[in-house]
Design brief:
The chain has 370 residues and is α+β, with helices and mostly antiparallel strands. The chain is built from 15 helices and 8 strands. The strands form 2 sheets. Strands 2-8-7-4-5 form a 5-stranded mixed β-sheet, with no helix packed on it. Strands 1-3-6 form a 3-stranded antiparallel β-sheet, with no helix packed on it. It starts with 10 loop residues before the first helix and ends in a 7-residue tail after the last strand.
Length: 370
């Protein structure tokens, strides 16, 4: 089993964090900090542990934020000494987000200094929420920074729907203020470009036509790197069969296409998998570019079905040509879904349109006898 995420913040890391702050602030009570930051730690999950450590910083750093910020900044790593780095900086993000909002420029400057050593995407979002115009005026300047981590923060931290982070409802409603970040589409670092793609994908969830049109206007004659970015930015639209998004990548509505779906097992024991075969035949007179996906319609607690689309394969099919795909879809425990027994459905999607489907039954194992 993988190590639980909560163990990224542990007693030894907290003790090391205390030593590195105390090395830059003789008045820092590292014993009290460790006691406060480890009390009840084992019972907490990751973000709860981070909040506990943040609260310990509240109690042991100066109440005056500029003084506390100066200690934290000098406690970051340098060429001559180690410092706060990695997961130590998650609670520091939370500290700055809570105490720095009344010192806007200083708080954002500290988060900018922090991001090369961990990330500050969680810390800058309360600043954007408090004063979007002022925050974005500062953050937009980071897009020209020489440090790739700072450039990425300008994109990643402003994503409207960043996972694990507070949502930015104003940018969900109107993403126009962050669209200039697409100037980073051709950044030399894939790390930065991927963030831009993720930001555009966030926008596509609420403004699909906007992103599809943006991609259409930027895809002709572009580099392979930018084309990858634009396709990654369109992944939600492609899964949903958005017509313009599909056309952007050469996937037109299919014509004279035959699709067969064969299930190897129509009953699946939870923990095992659904084995199936897809066979597509181009019965038309022209070659067709096909994006083949499949959707599993999962049973919900109320008995209704909820689809989840999975990528499968993109192919070019000549007239009269057939192509067969074999897949196994695992039905096993995952943290993001609760499974229920009953009749599920698998549907094959070709260029966004459902072309074949069948039902199968998911069987849950009997509970162990007491």
């Amino acid at each position: 089993m993988p190590e639980p995420l909560k163990n990224l913040l542990h007693e030894a890391l907290i003790a090391e964090m205390a030593d590195r702050i105390a090395g830059n602030s003789p008045s820092f009570d590292k014993g009290r900090f460790v006691t406060l930051a480890t009390g009840g730690l084992q019972a907490l999950e990751l973000m709860e542990r981070s909040a506990l450590i943040r609260d310990a910083l509240f109690s042991t750093l100066p109440d005056n934020f500029p003084e506390a910020a100066a200690i934290l900044k000098v406690s970051l790593p340098s060429e001559s000494k180690p410092g706060l780095t990695g997961w130590m900086l998650l609670p520091v993000n939370q500290f700055i987000a809570a105490r720095g909002l009344d010192h806007f420029d200083l708080g954002l400057d500290l988060l900018k200094a922090l991001t090369p050593h961990f990330t500050a995407e969680f810390g800058i979002r309360p600043f954007i929420h408090r004063d979007q115009q002022r925050s974005l005026a500062i953050i937009s300047g980071w897009a020209d920074d020489s440090d790739q981590h700072v450039r990425r923060l300008a994109s990643e931290g402003t994503r409207p729907r960043l996972p694990w982070a507070m949502r930015l409802p104003q940018l969900v409603k109107d993403p126009a203020p962050i669209l200039p970040i697409t100037a980073l589409m051709d950044d030399p670092e894939e790390y930065v470009r991927r963030s831009v793609a993720n930001s555009l994908n966030d926008v596509a969830k609420d403004h699909p036509d906007l992103v599809a049109a943006f991609v259409a206007s930027h895809i002709d004659g572009t580099s392979s790197e930018r084309r990858w970015l634009l396709k990654h930015a369109s992944r939600t639209l492609l899964k949903k069969g958005h017509a313009q998004a599909l056309a952007n990548f050469g996937f037109a509505a299919t014509a004279s296409l035959e699709c067969e779906l064969r299930l190897r097992n129509t009953e699946v024991m939870f923990g095992e998998g659904l084995d199936f075969e897809i066979r597509v035949t181009n019965a038309g007179e022209r070659a067709q570019s096909l994006m083949i996906d499949y959707a599993i319609h999962h049973v919900k607690s109320d008995g209704s079905l909820s689809p989840k689309v999975f990528k499968c394969k993109a192919i070019m099919l000549a007239p009269g040509q057939s192509h067969t795909i074999e897949r196994r879809h695992a039905m096993r425990p995952i943290t993001t879904r609760r499974y229920y027994p009953g009749e599920h459905r698998i549907a094959i999607l070709v260029n966004g349109a459902e072309t074949a489907s069948q039902s199968f039954v998911l069987v849950m194992p009997s509970p162990d006898p007491a």
